[in-house]
Amino acid sequence: MVKKVKLVGHPCKIFKKTALIMNMFTSDLEVARFEGAAVRTVSGIPGQVKKVAKDEIGNQPTKKGGAPREGIARCTFEDRILMSDIVFLRAWTQVEAPCFYNPLTTALQPRNKTWQGMKTMAELRREHNLPIPVNKDSLYKVINL
């Protein structure tokens, strides 16, 4: 089963038809995974993710022991984009559906070995001669005008 994901980013540096997009990906590995993916601006300009943009902006650690900023992607567009443009990438991700049933593995037993599943509440009430519970708030009330 797949789920639609929309990744959103903003340009941090713009060249002619190329822009460096930040805040869309969290790591360089994630950028590499989406290389070649189609991106689009809110104004409708289509583009494509090209590669990780670590060296193009001189991305060096700011303090001793710090790490350079990760997740910046170089994207090319069909036209020049603005700094105020929002860039988004539509993608589909695989999701695991939770199992809401218990597989019945004994269904192929011979007829003399019958298997009975769990009883319903109605069956249990019938066996023990219990009345159906009545919620007083759910009963109709007479309105006198």
TrEMBL record:
Domain of life of the source: Eukaryota
Q: Which GO terms describe its biological process?
A: endonucleolytic cleavage of tricistronic rRNA transcript (SSU-rRNA, 5.8S rRNA, LSU-rRNA); maturation of SSU-rRNA from tricistronic rRNA transcript (SSU-rRNA, 5.8S rRNA, LSU-rRNA)
Q: Tell me, what is one Gene Ontology molecular-function annotation carried by this entry? A: U3 snoRNA binding
Q: Which Pfam families match?
A: RIBIOP_C
Sorted alphabetically, the Gene Ontology cellular component annotations on this record are:
90S preribosome
Q: Which residues form the Ribosome biogenesis protein BMS1/TSR1 C-terminal domain?
A: 2-96
Q: Which residues form the signal peptide?
A: none
Q: What is this protein called?
A: RIBOSOME BIOGENESIS PROTEIN
* UniProt organism field: Salix koriyanagi
Q: What is the lineage of its organism?
A: Eukaryota, Viridiplantae, Streptophyta, Embryophyta, Tracheophyta
